[in-house]
Amino acid sequence: MEYSLSIIEKLNVEELLLTPHLSYVENSILERKKVSSLILQKKIDDIMLITSSGFLIDSVFAGLSEKHIEHIAKNAPKNYKESLLKIQEDPEMMQGVFEIAQAMDRDLGENVTQNQQRVKNVMRYIQDNQIAFQF
Protein backbone atom coordinates (compact mmCIF):
# COMPACT_ATOMS: atom_id res chain seq x y z
CA MET A 1 0.00 0.00 0.00
CA GLU A 2 1.39 3.33 -1.04
CA TYR A 3 1.14 6.24 1.36
CA SER A 4 1.75 9.87 0.49
CA LEU A 5 2.05 12.70 2.95
CA SER A 6 -0.47 15.49 3.07
CA ILE A 7 0.75 19.05 2.59
CA ILE A 8 0.50 19.65 6.36
CA GLU A 9 2.54 16.53 7.08
CA LYS A 10 5.17 17.58 4.54
CA LEU A 11 5.38 21.04 6.11
CA ASN A 12 5.74 19.49 9.58
CA VAL A 13 8.60 17.28 8.42
CA GLU A 14 10.28 20.21 6.70
CA GLU A 15 9.90 22.32 9.84
CA LEU A 16 11.55 19.65 12.00
CA LEU A 17 14.45 19.23 9.56
CA LEU A 18 15.12 22.76 8.33
CA THR A 19 13.70 25.15 10.90
CA PRO A 20 13.22 23.43 14.25
CA HIS A 21 13.91 26.78 15.94
CA LEU A 22 10.66 28.13 14.49
CA SER A 23 8.54 25.29 15.84
CA TYR A 24 7.51 26.94 19.07
CA VAL A 25 4.70 29.45 19.34
CA GLU A 26 5.60 30.99 22.67
CA ASN A 27 9.09 31.76 23.84
CA SER A 28 8.93 29.67 27.02
CA ILE A 29 11.82 27.73 28.48
CA LEU A 30 9.81 24.53 28.01
CA GLU A 31 9.41 25.13 24.26
CA ARG A 32 13.04 26.16 23.85
CA LYS A 33 14.14 23.08 25.79
CA LYS A 34 12.08 20.87 23.44
CA VAL A 35 13.90 22.32 20.44
CA SER A 36 17.29 21.80 22.12
CA SER A 37 16.43 18.20 22.90
CA LEU A 38 15.38 17.67 19.29
CA ILE A 39 18.70 19.09 18.10
CA LEU A 40 20.70 16.98 20.55
CA GLN A 41 19.04 13.83 19.20
CA LYS A 42 19.91 14.60 15.58
CA LYS A 43 22.51 12.48 13.80
CA ILE A 44 25.60 14.42 12.81
CA ASP A 45 24.68 14.38 9.12
CA ASP A 46 21.17 15.67 9.88
CA ILE A 47 22.53 18.70 11.73
CA MET A 48 23.50 20.16 8.36
CA LEU A 49 19.84 20.21 7.26
CA ILE A 50 19.07 23.07 9.64
CA THR A 51 19.09 26.44 7.91
CA SER A 52 22.13 28.60 8.70
CA SER A 53 19.93 31.16 10.48
CA GLY A 54 18.98 28.45 12.96
CA PHE A 55 22.49 28.53 14.35
CA LEU A 56 21.83 32.08 15.54
CA ILE A 57 19.13 30.80 17.93
CA ASP A 58 19.87 29.88 21.54
CA SER A 59 17.75 26.73 21.54
CA VAL A 60 19.65 25.30 18.56
CA PHE A 61 23.05 26.15 20.04
CA ALA A 62 22.02 24.64 23.40
CA GLY A 63 21.27 21.34 21.65
CA LEU A 64 24.58 20.95 19.84
CA SER A 65 26.89 18.16 20.90
CA GLU A 66 30.65 17.94 20.60
CA LYS A 67 30.22 15.60 17.61
CA HIS A 68 27.84 18.05 15.94
CA ILE A 69 30.21 20.99 16.30
CA GLU A 70 33.18 19.01 15.03
CA HIS A 71 31.16 17.93 11.99
CA ILE A 72 30.08 21.51 11.39
CA ALA A 73 33.67 22.77 11.65
CA LYS A 74 34.84 20.25 9.07
CA ASN A 75 31.90 20.22 6.66
CA ALA A 76 29.57 23.20 7.00
CA PRO A 77 29.47 26.16 4.65
CA LYS A 78 30.94 29.44 5.87
CA ASN A 79 27.57 31.03 6.76
CA TYR A 80 26.79 28.24 9.24
CA LYS A 81 30.11 28.75 10.97
CA GLU A 82 29.73 32.54 10.99
CA SER A 83 26.34 32.17 12.67
CA LEU A 84 27.90 30.09 15.44
CA LEU A 85 30.62 32.70 15.97
CA LYS A 86 28.01 35.47 16.13
CA ILE A 87 25.82 33.75 18.70
CA GLN A 88 28.81 32.98 20.87
CA GLU A 89 29.66 36.69 20.90
CA ASP A 90 26.11 37.70 21.93
CA PRO A 91 25.82 37.77 25.76
CA GLU A 92 22.01 37.68 25.75
CA MET A 93 21.86 34.67 23.47
CA MET A 94 24.51 32.83 25.47
CA GLN A 95 22.55 33.55 28.65
CA GLY A 96 19.59 31.90 26.94
CA VAL A 97 21.76 28.93 25.95
CA PHE A 98 22.76 28.36 29.56
CA GLU A 99 19.20 28.82 30.82
CA ILE A 100 18.11 26.06 28.47
CA ALA A 101 21.03 23.80 29.43
CA GLN A 102 20.27 24.32 33.12
CA ALA A 103 16.60 23.46 32.53
CA MET A 104 17.64 20.31 30.68
CA ASP A 105 19.90 19.39 33.61
CA ARG A 106 17.12 19.97 36.15
CA ASP A 107 15.06 17.40 34.26
CA LEU A 108 17.84 14.88 34.80
CA GLY A 109 18.09 15.41 38.54
CA GLU A 110 19.49 17.55 41.29
CA ASN A 111 23.09 18.74 40.92
CA VAL A 112 23.35 17.41 37.34
CA THR A 113 25.40 19.60 35.00
CA GLN A 114 25.97 17.38 31.97
CA ASN A 115 24.16 19.68 29.52
CA GLN A 116 25.90 22.77 30.85
CA GLN A 117 29.22 20.97 30.49
CA ARG A 118 28.31 19.88 26.95
CA VAL A 119 27.57 23.50 26.03
CA LYS A 120 30.88 24.61 27.55
CA ASN A 121 32.67 21.94 25.51
CA VAL A 122 30.97 23.16 22.33
CA MET A 123 31.99 26.73 23.13
CA ARG A 124 35.55 25.64 23.87
CA TYR A 125 35.72 23.73 20.60
CA ILE A 126 34.64 26.83 18.67
CA GLN A 127 37.18 28.99 20.50
CA ASP A 128 40.00 26.47 20.06
CA ASN A 129 39.22 26.05 16.37
CA GLN A 130 38.19 29.63 15.59
CA ILE A 131 40.18 29.64 12.33
CA ALA A 132 38.02 26.78 11.03
CA PHE A 133 34.92 28.85 11.77
CA GLN A 134 36.23 31.99 10.09
CA PHE A 135 37.03 30.42 6.72
Short characterization:
The chain is mostly helical and 135 residues long. It has eight helices and no strands.
Can you walk through the features of this model?
The chain is mainly α and 135 residues long. Helix content is 65%, strand content 0%. Helix 2 crosses helix 6, helix 4 packs parallel to helix 7 and helix 6 runs antiparallel to helix 7. The mean pLDDT is 88.
Low-confidence stretches: none
Helix percentage: 55-70%
Classify the secondary structure makeup into a structural class.
mainly alpha
What percentage of the residues does DSSP assign to strands (E)? Answer: under 5%
**What's the number of extended β-strand segments?**
0
For the report, how would you describe the main beta sheet? none
In whole angstroms, how far apart are the ends? 48 Å
List the helices and strands and how they pair.
Blueprint: H1 7-18, H2 29-41, H3 58-61, H4 66-75, H5 78-88, H6 91-108, H7 114-128, H8 130-134
Features of the shown structure:
135 residues, mainly alpha, 8 helices, globular
